[in-house]
Design a protein that fits this description.
Blueprint (H helix, E strand, L loop, with lengths): L13 E2 L14 H14 L3 E5 L5 H10 L3 E7 L1 H9 L1 H10 L5 H20 L4 E5 L3 E2 L2 E2 L3 H20 L5 E6 L6 H6 L2 E7 L3 H14 L2 E6 L8 H15 L2 E4 L6 H23 L2
Helix pairs in contact: 1-2, 3-4, 3-5, 5-6, 9-10
């Protein structure tokens, strides 16, 4: 939690959304929760995302705590909810051509997001993470005006709601969102999960997050794990030492093999972090 507030805290590592196939296959709601906690213990993690929509989410918070880690309650944001309801193509088209049509659907999406976020606070989650992909590999998905005028007030409402219950808030987005980082900080978020950016642009995004007053999570691009997990891990470990990055995957783990590769990357990251500190 110190690291999530931007304070020096040594090497900190976690995991985002685990692939469904790794979260148990039994009928009990505790299967996914216990699988997540087992992953926390096996990978020696400091934090883990808990998917808020899962029936076992509240149980997972307790089990992640028992495993010695911080639980980040991951809530789908308002743009994602619009995309699910209207279809992504239509939602993005309306955001650009007829944003006034989205006032009603956006209010409904905000209500649902608030209910989910407050449930995380009630379950004892240490932090609520709002996940909305505002950009992608090709650039922004919505116009700056729509992001600032329509979405930011919603994010501010969510952050204020959970902060009122004693829970800080973080944000997740794919793509380069450097221009939005100051607005996210003003909306009440204390940390940002970086995803969908190239390793070459990672440093600039971390620096921009810190300049805006946001702690930065990420550093391990899931698609790079198939090439050489150790290389990906060492890169993240150096960024953790030099820029106080909280090491995490970028949300792209898709299989149990990916998780195994991520474990190798974390081992390399810890080694690189130590070597950077010793000057070797």
């Amino acid at each position: 939690m110190s690291a999530l507030r931007g304070e020096p805290a040594g090497f900190v590592a976690g995991i985002s959304w685990l692939p469904p196939g790794t979260l148990g296959c039994g009928d009990g709601i505790g299967d996914g929760a216990e699988s997540l906690a087992a992953t926390v213990r096996e990978l020696e993690l400091d934090f883990a995302f808990v998917p808020a929509e899962e029936p076992w989410a509240a149980d997972a918070v307790e089990r992640v705590h028992d495993a010695g880690a911080v639980a980040l309650w991951a809530v789908s944001g308002v743009l994602g909810r619009l995309g699910s309801r209207l279809g992504w193509t239509e939602a993005l088209r309306l955001s650009a051509a007829q944003p006034e049509v989205l006032v009603g659907p956006l209010a409904e999406a905000l209500h649902r997001a608030l209910v989910s976020a407050r449930a995380g606070s009630a379950a004892g989650a240490d932090l609520v993470l709002v996940a909305d992909d505002l950009a992608g590999a090709a650039g922004p998905l919505v116009s700056p005006d729509f992001a600032l005028d329509a979405l930011m007030p919603c994010y501010r409402s969510i952050a204020a709601a959970v902060f009122g219950q004693g829970t800080p808030a973080a944000f997740h987005s794919d793509g380069d969102v450097r221009t939005l980082m100051p607005s996210l900080a003003r909306a009440g978020f204390s940390a940002l999960h970086l995803a969908g950016i190239t390793p070459e642009s990672l440093g600039a995004s971390i620096d921009a997050a810190h300049a805006a007053g946001l702690a930065a999570l990420g550093g391990v691009v899931a698609v790079s794990l198939g090439d050489d997990p150790e290389v990906a891990g060492r890169r993240a470990g150096r960024e953790a030492r030099q820029r106080r990055l909280l090491v995490c995957d970028d949300g792209g783990l898709a299989t149990a093999e990916d998780v195994a590769a991520y474990k190798r990357a974390l081992k390399a990251a810890r080694t690189a972090y130590s070597e950077e500190g010793s000057g070797s």
